[in-house]
Amino acid sequence: MKNIQISFWIAQIFVVLCFSCTVNQPLPNDITPTVMIPEQVTSATTTPFSAPIVTEPAQKVPQELFEQGLQRLQEGEIEQAISIFDSVIDANPSFVEAYIQRSLAKVLMGDEEGALEDLNRAVQIDPTNPEVFNARGNLYAQQDKLPEAIEDFNKAISLDASYIKAYINRANIYSVMGEYDKAIEDLSKAQSIDPSMPSTYFNLGLVFAEQGEFQKAAEQLRKYVELVPEDAQGYYYLAASLAELEEYDNALFIINQAIDMQPDLRRQTSDR
Q1: Is residue 190 in a domain?
Q2: What is the pLDDT of residues 65-74, one digit of tens each?
Q3: Closest residue by Cα to residue 267 from 1, 2, 3, 23
Q4: How many domains does the chain have?
Q5: CA distance 136 to 152
């Protein structure tokens, strides 16, 4: 049974929200426990974008054109999306959401400098908008500028104490820095704001496991697989926690469930 016991590498597999503060990025379904997962969690799909922030009268905003840009972005047509967002901004230079979405598209094109310019401009337009600071914080995190990222997440939270995404993203930074108590505090706060947010349970499970608190880890991961029963990785890490608790029968049963859903996990478990 020892071959299903794995090490927990929090900085490598921590689930975070995507760079764009207005996309509820789905949880990962292709994580491997020994590969660094970038701040942009890879996935084949995204959920719908939230409504844009409008800083001028609605009739002046080329809403239909903006939505076309979002559609292109979701479909992976990044250059076309950027071109459309360019037109939106030309028509309405104060359309904050267009800057945010264009910055996401620029990141996907490898233009982090251009993305930062867009987000800095969005901050200038609306310095009271927590989503702008959250988006820029994620970009700083992607650039390994952790103090700057924390500062922006702090700002987002100061503007909206219930802004759950900033708590989760800040917790990720704290986890990378090894400040697990702070990560737990932020994730617990996020969980109290929205108990239905699956990533808080997954991330808390990993943080507790990293600290050797496998009973607490198992409790969080059990809740996660209840909320996201189709994610094999949830079962995988739950099985690992149970193995550490020497609940080998339960661990074997659960890891087999994970392998049924994601057969390549068999190789991962046999390698350990």
Answers
A1: yes
A2: 999 999 999 9
A3: 3
A4: 1
A5: 7
Backbone phi, psi, residue 200, to 5°: -65, -35
DSSP line for 15-65:
----SSTTB-PPPPSS--TTSPPPSS---S--PPBPPPP-SS-GGGS-HHH
- Single out the residue of 173, 172, 169, 163 nearest to residue 193, CA to CA: 163
Name the helix (H) or strand (E) containing 131: helix 130-142
Q: Calculate mean pLDDT across residues 62-66.
A: 89
User: 109-165: per-residue pLDDT in tens?
Assistant: 999 999 999 999 999 999 999 999 999 999 999 999 999 999 999 999 999 999 999
- CA distances 257 to 46, 215, 221, Å, are 25, 20, 14
Triad 157, 205, 250: Cα angle to 5°: 160
Q: Is the dihedral of CA 209, 214, 220, 221 positive or negative?
A: positive
The answer to whether 220 touches 201, Cβ cutoff 8 Å, is yes
Identify the CATH number of the domain in which residue 202 sits: 1.25.40.10
Helix, coil or strand: residue 223 = helix
CA distances in angstroms from 107 to 20, 28, 40, listed in the order given:
10, 19, 10
Helices then strands (H, E): number in the chain? 14, 0
Domain around 25? 2-53+129-270
**139: nearest Cα among 102, 96, 181, 175:** 102
Task: State CA 222 to chain mean position distance.
Answer: 20
Q: Is 161 helix (H, G, I), strand (E, B) or coil?
A: coil
Distance CA 272, CA 269 (A): 5
Is 225 within the bounds of a domain? yes
- The answer as to whether 122 is a domain residue is no
Q: Is the residue at 202 inside a domain? A: yes
